[in-house]
Every structure is written in structure tokens, then in C-alpha cells.
Amino acid sequence: MNEILPGRSSHPPADYIAETKRLYDSLGYDSYRWAERSGQAPWRPITKPLADSTVLLIGSGGIYQHGQTAFHTKDDTSVRVIKSDVDTTTLRTAHFAYDQADARTDPNCVFPLDRLAELSDAGEIGAVASESYAFMGGIYSTRRLEAETVPILVDRCRQLEPDLVLLVPV
Amino acid sequence: MAEPGSIEPLDYRWHDDEWRADPLSWSRQRQDSGTSGNPSGDSRTDRISDPVYQNEADKSAAEAVPSDEQCLVCLGIDPD
Predict the structure, then answer these.
(1) So what's the ipTM on this one?
(2) Which pLDDT score is estimated for B40?
(3) Which residues in chain B (19-58) have CB-CB distances under 8 A to chain A?
(4) What is the mean pLDDT of residues A73-81?
(5) Is the pLDDT confidence value at B32 over 60?
(6) What is residue B16's predicted lDDT score, i.e. its pLDDT?
(7) How far apart are CA B50 and CA A72, in angstroms?
(8) pLDDT tens-digit readout, A25-62
(9) Which of A110, A169, B10, B13 could form a disulfide with A9 if both were Cys (CB 3.0 to 4.6 A apart)?
(10) Strand partners, A167
(11) A96 and A24 Cβ atoms separated by less than 8 Å
(12) Distance of CA B7 to the CA centre of its chain
């Protein structure tokens, strides 16, 4: 079982961009083409204490709820709305790019709603937003991601007006 | 943290943190061993245009819901 211990790792954070380039080179593939942005991301420093903040969860692990249509695995740009008080035993995964065994045992691996609820109960965060959003990462078209998925997420977030959004990439 | 682009390591670590020394070694090992397919028990699937349900009960439950109601919870899906 993977346990989390106090104290920093002796290793630096994994540089997956450099590692992926190295992997592709070693396999004789063409260089991996990461999407790049010329400008800097807008900086939005936290202005409220966490204990007073409403946190909204967005995850790219392909989570859907029993009764919802599952994601397909070929550039599915749709979004699933998950009520944040959902029984997480009804959450499922559909994804092509990671081994879902652990996530199917405990969806919190990729969509930590129960953990956020615990943080809320403990007063560490103010509240969990009433809705959470899930989509399937591994969308190969950056253009479609920006044109189809992102506007849905931005629109829903603007309606709920959370103080913070927790993005969980998978 | 006061500017974009910086990383602030948290004061926690996995009990076995050695994977960080070579985080993609598992992929190279799989290639080197000739097991390019999914290892036993690995649930990764091909990229296909049909919904990939975790189980048949999910598929039945979803298909029992009219498509116009589906779109209340499945944003971005074309009901046709």
C-alpha cells in the first residue's frame, strides 16, 4: 500500500516533459510535440483564507457516474457534471491512457471528492462547490479541447463562482 | 509562491520515493522486454468512438435514460 509520509522527497519533482522527450528519443520515435503557449499564464494569487474558500473540483480522469453515458476514448470533449454530495461508490472511469485498476477501487485516486469533503468537515477549506466536473484527458486535439471542453468548464465555473478550482490531471 | 511557473514541493513524500529518480522507467522496461501491449490486469483500452463502460450494468443504466435527459448531465454530447 502506498503511504504518504511526512518530510520532503530526496528527489526533485519529476520533469515529465524532459522525461517524455528522452523516452521518445530512446524508442526512435519523432520528438513528442507538447502544446506550447507563448505567453505566461495569468497569475491569480489566493485572496481568501482556505478555511473561508469554496473549492470546486475538476478532474480529467474520465470519471462518470452510474447512469451517465461513459466517455468514449477518441477525443471525447464532453463533460460530466457530478454532484459533490454523490455517493462516490457510484463513480466509474473510462479512459485509454492510464491503468484504471486503482481508480476503479477508489475513485478518489483521480477525483478526490471524499477527501475534499473531509477537509471541509475539518474546517481546512470553507466548502466544496455543489458541482464537480469530469472530462476525459488525452484529447489529442488542443484546438478541440480549447473550443469545446474549456468553454463548458469556464461557463459552469462562472455560474457557481467558487473561490478556488482544484484541477486534478490524470 | 508569488509568481507563476514555480513549484513548491509539499512536506510529504511517498513511502517508496525511488520511482522519482527515473519516472518513466516502467515504459522503457516494457518496450525492452517486448511486452508492448498492456500488462496483465491493466485496464487501458484502445481509442474508439463508442462509450467505454466500466461494466455492463452501467451501459444498461445509461441507455435506459432518454437522450434528452442525458444531456442534462452529459454536457457536450450530441444526442444524435
Answers:
(1) 0.83
(2) 46
(3) 20-21, 23-24, 27-28, 31, 38, 41-55, 57-58
(4) 91
(5) yes
(6) 85
(7) 5
(8) 887 888 888 888 888 878 888 889 999 999 999 999 99
(9) B13
(10) A58
(11) no
(12) 24
Query: Mean pLDDT over residues A107-124, rounded?
Result: 97
Q: What is the Cα–Cα distance from A110 to A125, expressed in whole angstroms?
A: 19
- pLDDT confidence band for B10 (50 / 70 / 90): confident
CA dist A167 and A115 (Å) reads 14
Residue window 110-129, chain A: list those with CB within 8 Å of chain B. Answer: none
Chain A partners within 8 Å of B73 (Cβ): 65, 68, 80-81
Retrieve residue A125's grid coordinates. Answer: 477549506
DSSP string, A83-94: ETT--GGGEEE-
Closest CA relative to residue A82, chosen from B8, B14, B10, B72? B72
β-pairing, A79-83 with A131-135? antiparallel
CA distance A29 to chain B (A): 13
Contacts of B2 in chain A (CB under 8 A): 45
> Shortest Cα distance from B38 to chain A (angstroms)?
9
The alpha carbon of residue B21 is apart from the nearest alpha carbon of chain A, in Å, by 7
Q: Is the distance from CB of A75 to CB of A149 less than 8 angstroms?
A: no
B8, pLDDT greater than 90: no
Rounded Cα gap, residues B16 and B5, in angstroms: 27
